[in-house]
TrEMBL record:
It comes from the Eukaryota. The lineage of its organism: Eukaryota, Viridiplantae, Streptophyta, Embryophyta, Tracheophyta. This is Uncharacterized protein.
Amino acid sequence: MGTSDPRPSWLLAGMDPKSSYLLEIKLVGNPRCRKEVSCFIISMVVDSDTCNFKDLVDEIVEKYPPGYEELVTVAYYDAASRNHLEVKTHQELLAMFAKHVDSKVVHMAIAYTLPSEILEWPNL
């Protein structure tokens, strides 16, 4: 009688499967400032019990800094409304995790735009 491991392959050793999430993050660059690449994807595994909004954004922005005068906007794709919903606070981050409690995978987007530009979210 074999037992199957219900843990997803992306879950890191020692992480709690009940509170861990895979973030698939599209980084969307300003095409006027970032001619070398306009969009690429990074993956992160986070524990929703210890992750907070400010630290999450700071970690990403440190690795992928915005250009001069660029604003950083964070959102996730909400399948129910078929829209990207912006995340601006820790409470909104927790709400995002709650909406993905069954799949444990969150499709996010982080956009780098100039203040005068209209933000357009990428298609999934």
